[in-house]
Queue: 2 jobs
Job 1
Amino acid sequence: MDATFLAADPATLLVVALALLDSSDRVLMQRRPENRAQGGLWEFPGGKVEPCEGPAAALVREIAEELGISIHESDVTPLTFAASQADGTTRPIVLLLYTCRNWQGEPVPEPGAAIGWYETEALGALAMPPLDVPLAAALHLFVKNP
Ligand SMILES: Nc1nc2c([nH]c(=O)n2[C@H]2C[C@H](O)[C@@H](COP(=O)(O)OP(=O)(O)OP(=O)(O)O)O2)c(=O)[nH]1
């Protein structure tokens, strides 16, 4: 793999993701479009934090872009994080997971994506990116032992 981009920007990639929980403690999961990296895998909606942007602000922006709903920074709570190992070829990722129970609007997936509400005990059966496996386990513990 061409890793010259790492020399230009060696920083860790910061990604924020949201566990949107309904009143039954089901969580909204999103399936990535097939034509993107990690296509077809189920993930927490979210995305990359942009330069000079705070994580909670990035989450509000990404959730509006991806699901067409509004959330407020004051309603998101950090839950846990996961980090990939540096391998010298791809930029390491730190993935911050937040929870939120309040939103305005009806979630609609982006073209090519899909969404679904899942009991947290069912998350283990979904095909997910590797970093999401420990996040899903932590979320399940959280909703069962708040
Ligand atoms: N949103 C999200 N990204 C995740 C999760 N797990 C995981 O490994 N990732 C990775 C996939 C991508 O490498 C990166 C997020 O990239 P993205 O493509 O979703 O971000 P973005 O919306 O800002 O994308 P872009 O089109 O602006 O490039 O984090 C997850 O649960 N949610």
Note: The chain has one domain: 4-144.
Job 2
Amino acid sequence: MDNEINSFPQVLTIAGTDSGGGAGIMADLKTFQARHVFGTAVVVAVTAQNTLGVQNSFMLPKAMIDDQFAALADDLHIRACKTGMLGDAQHVRWVVANLKKYNWGPVIVDPVMVAKGGAVLLDPDAIQTVQQQLLPLATLITPNLPEAEQLTNQKITTQKNIQQAAHQLQELGAQNVLIKGGHHLAQQVQDYVLLADGSDFWLEAPRVDTNRTHGTGDTLSACIVAELAQGHDLTTAIRCGKQYVTAAIKHTIQVGHGHGPLNHWAGQKEGLTHAEI
Ligand SMILES: Nc1ncnc2c1ncn2[C@@H]1O[C@H](COP(=O)(O)OP(=O)(O)OP(=O)(O)O)[C@@H](O)[C@H]1O
Ligand SMILES: Cc1ncc(COP(=O)(O)O)c(N)n1
């Protein structure tokens, strides 16, 4: 009976808010809505932010974080979750404890470190805690190139470096790895995927010439979470996420003076049905 009550696919983002609406929990919830799953959130950090940058941030106390997890565990049936901005080492530890305490389905780790505008969203001291405690819980980790460099302690300049870094992230405990190539300014953006069984592939798309790319990583990982919650396999979910984020970047909307947000209605705009994108 409980299965019937909680049968609609429910997902969770564990991250920071963005008052400007473009990244973090806001981008995740917009993506969940567009992808037809019910989105929930554990707020770890609150940021005062807009498309020009992060003006202030506040980390929530442990009791408030634990209570949010407990409230969800008591009532909902979360099928997949993701992490985003976690701020510092102690918050990473508190989140890890709650990931272990309950079952939230597959865990997608988006190891957010620095915002597009340059603000630090993860204390550099916390990187070791992410490597040692969070990575082993990751069904999939989705670093961008600078994050992959930090997590593997190496410069990444070639495709071979990217592949080596992905293997290193697996050795640290992440089951599957998606290294995002948005920060490499080539004509084609290339993301690299290394799966748990050792198979791999590249995802390619033409670079859209725009600075309206606030929240691209959040949107990609949130879409993957949504697809997993609906029962798709990981490869299908990743390919769908890539198609969705590419469309959301391509169909620019004019919001803000700086790094503008994506168009989370892009699937509808392209006339794509839910099943096609
Ligand atoms: N200008 C662009 N044109 C097309 N695709 C892009 C562009 N920029 C990023 N992407 C794609 O968006 C996704 C996110 O990549 P990116 O490297 O920007 O992540 P990120 O830095 O974590 O994003 P954010 O921190 O803004 O959330 C990847 O699939 C990447 O290839
Ligand atoms: C709360 C929060 N989470 C994540 C990001 C990263 O997004 P971006 O790199 O596009 O600024 C952000 N700016 N704010």
Note: The domain at 2-142+215-269 is CATH 3.40.1190.20 (UDP-N-acetylmuramoyl-L-alanine:D-glutamate ligase).
